[in-house]
Amino acid sequence: MKAFILAAGRGERMRPLTDHTPKPLLLAGGKPLIVWHLERLAVAGFREAVINHAHLGEQIEAALGDGSQWGLSIEYSPEPPGALETAGGIANALPLLGDQPFLVVNGDVWCDFDFGRFCRSTAPGTKPPWGAAGTQALAHLVMVANPAHHGGGDFSLDGERVIFANGEQTLTYAGIGVFSPAFFAGLKPGSVMKLRPLLDAAIAAGNLTGERHAGRWVDVGTPQRLAELDQELTNA
Predict the structure, then answer these.
(1) Which of 7-21, 61-75, 183-197 tops mean pLDDT?
(2) Residue 157: in which H helix or E strand, if any?
(3) What's the burial of 197, exposed, middle or buried (CB within 10 Å: 0-12/13-18/19+)?
(4) Fewer CB within 10 Å, N or C, the chain?
(5) With 70 as the cut, is the pLDDT of residue 126 above it?
(6) Which residues pair with 78 in a beta bridge?
């Protein structure tokens, strides 16, 4: 299984920090945010990763290189200024991701989720840890308890099925998921497209599954949250 890290965002809420540094390269606990992902992916058994970029993307390529220092092979999917949004960026990178399901991780989150669960699921004779009974899941989302800055959440869970937000029983999409290339069928390379409309369509069709991650997860979306994470990791 390949991993795809979303790293093309401008990071407007992180300005002025992101005026000269792309958000995935901002430091927390002494290392860039994206390096935490690369280390976890390597430990989990991943060997190939694709990273998209737009804003200051040349810095990302210069910092990470070919990935060999982490035991990974990294390929890059450059996007035009302004980027292509999440779904558009993934669709644009499909030629690099192949024809099998792949892991997607937002470059601006920090988590202790075990990526290895998904990597190990591709072994011959192993049942993937997603796909509720009676569904043909095209995607599987990892979700977390709603953070203070997103109290309304995104979706709800009915067993393994992801359903539309249901009253108080809501969860927030963690920016981590496994997607089949077929999930992005019909999106042409270069299209600008958010992910939410595709997720809503998959819920309506009944082919979106999910799970709740109860461990540590941080949406590093503001300088304050970055500073808090930095202090936490430094003191750990």
Answers:
(1) 61-75
(2) strand 155-158
(3) exposed
(4) C
(5) no
(6) 53
CA distances from 81 to 21, 54, 190, 199 (A): 15, 6, 12, 25
Looking at residue 236, its pLDDT comes to 83
Of 89, 122, 121, nearest to 106 by C-alpha is 89
One-letter amino acid for residue 28 of the chain: A
Our measurement of the distance from residue 83's CA atom to the centroid of its chain's CA atoms, rounded to an integer in Å, reads 16
- Residue 143 contacts residue 211 (beta carbons within 8 Å): yes
> Coil, strand or helix: which one is 181?
helix
Of 95-104, 115-124, 132-141, give the range with the top mean pLDDT: 95-104
Q: Any idea what the CATH number is for the domain that residue 73 is in?
A: 3.90.550.10
Coil, strand or helix at 149: helix
Tell me the three state secondary structure of residue 152. coil
Residue 203 DSSP code: H
Q: Which two tokens stand for residue 107?
A: 């470059």
**Number of separate domains in the chain:** 1
Residues 220, 113: Cα–Cα separation, whole Å: 16
Q: What is the pLDDT of residues 153-170, one digit of tens each?
A: 999 999 999 999 987 799
- Region for residue 20 given its phi and psi (left: phi exceeds 0; alpha: psi -120 to 50; beta: otherwise): alpha
CA 178/CA 10 separation, integer angstroms: 24
Place of tokens 């409309």: 197
Alpha-carbon distances, residue 102 vs 14, 30, 95, 148 (angstroms): 28, 29, 12, 30
